[in-house]
Amino acid sequence: MKKLLAILLCVLMISSILVVNAAAEDVVEITYSYWGTPEEAASVQAVADKFNSEQDRIHVTVLAIPNEEYTTTLNSMAAGNQLPDCGIMNENGVLDFAADGLLADISSMYEGAASMPLDAITFKADGKPVAYSAANEILFLYYNKDMFDAAGVAYPDPKTPYTWDEFVETAKLLTLDGNGNNAASPDFDANNIVQYGCNVDNWTWQLEVWALSNGGAWFAPDGSACTINTPEVAESIQNVADLYLVDHVMQFRDGLEDSGVQSTIAAGNVAMATGGTWNVGTCMNLATFPYGVAPLPVMKEEVTICTGGPQVVFAQGSHQAEAMEFIKWYTQEENSWDSLIATGIWMPILEEYYVNEELTHKWVDNPNFSMGYENFKTSVVDYAHDYAVSTCWYYVPHTNEFLEYLRSELGSVWTGDISAADALNHAEAHLIEIFEGY
């Protein structure tokens, strides 16, 4: 009898082990790719950890790729049939990936959902959604309160943006040489600047907002034509270049790095800087000085552009249903709240957070938004709701190649070797070829 009991016990133990192993084998492993700073990496990992802990059917492993190399790396992975199951994408590559059949069908993702992502941050091909941004991000102006106070200059008005001329004149008052003279002084030494008044990011995609503000546009609103070579667009680019070349209120930037806020205002050597909402949580939260936010300066029309890295499901993966489940879960505000939205890295994608003040308070009324609720509500939340328009890559394909070529052509504008008008004249034919897909 004892021998029989022992055999039965062994059988039960082996069965238990087999059940456990079978359960482990049933867990679907998927990979999620992303880009970002170390601060963003910690936030993304926290979200993946939360998803992994809330259920036992799917396990997500995160794959980090540098922002500047992201689209190129994904293209190489696609060529080798080695794309991850899902991931965030650079906005400028989405429609090309969709056209090449590299994105899975997401038409059923929000079936039966009570709410949908904002239309302005929905990527569409032939009128159909192919991806949704994970966050709604806009461009606006950051400013260092200590530098304004020291110069005796009033803070930017969150309700009435600077005109471009007012912005330049204010930047002159905040640009100082080694002797304490500002750039409006006849004694100012432009070869000995110790504090710059502004930085307007010339990372190429951000230049689109100035074309729109100046009454121009890179593309027709319906995406049917490339309209970049106009006097309005050329003037908008030249205005940015002249902040360095003529006005001496901005340090030289070659437009080759997406680090404008980090290396300027966040570093403590610039008084005002244009940047994105994400910078609240990625670098400005580390600032050792008080800062505020304001709408962008206006050339002719008040406008900002919205964007946001889209969460996509890649078609090469063998676990598309599980990847779609994770992406849908990820884009729900409550699941990325603590690590991404409340920190200031992401803005919500649902309109109710912009018009329902109770929800806006839930979002903004926390210590991570050190500029204060009222400042951020007026300068960013209301601004995003009332003045933000889609960036071109939501409705125009080939923008990755378009931007790379435009960046190369504008290099000589930043150094002052040619004018923006001459650069656009030289680049127009090839930019149109890119736009038309050759």
Describe the SSE topology.
Layout: H1 2-26, E1 28-34, H2 38-54, E2 58-64, H3 70-79, E3 86-88, H4 94-99, E4 122-125, E5 128-133, E6 137-144, H5 145-151, H6 164-173, E7 176-177, E8 193-199, H7 208-213, H8 231-245, H9 260-263, E9 270-276, H10 279-282, E10 291-294, E11 304-307, E12 310-313, H11 320-330, H12 337-341, H13 352-355, H14 357-364, H15 373-387, E13 388-390, H16 399-414, H17 420-435
Helix pairs in contact: 16-17
Main attributes of the structure:
7-stranded mixed β-sheet, D-Maltodextrin-Binding Protein, domain 2, globular, alpha/beta, 2 domains, single chain, 17 helices, disordered N terminus, 6-stranded mixed β-sheet, 13 strands, 438 residues
Account of the protein in words:
The protein contains 17 helices and 13 strands. The chain has 438 residues and is of the alpha/beta class. It has 2 domains: 154 residues, Periplasmic binding protein-like II (D-Maltodextrin-Binding Protein, domain 2), CATH 3.40.190; 233 residues, 3-Layer(aba) Sandwich (D-Maltodextrin-Binding Protein, domain 2), CATH 3.40.190. Strands 6, 7, 8, 9, 10, 11 and 13 form a 7-stranded mixed β-sheet that branches. Strands 2-1-3-12-5-4 form a 6-stranded mixed β-sheet. A hairpin with a 2-residue loop joins strand 4 and strand 5. Helix 16 packs antiparallel against helix 17. The radius of gyration is 25 Å and the shape is globular. The N terminus is likely disordered.
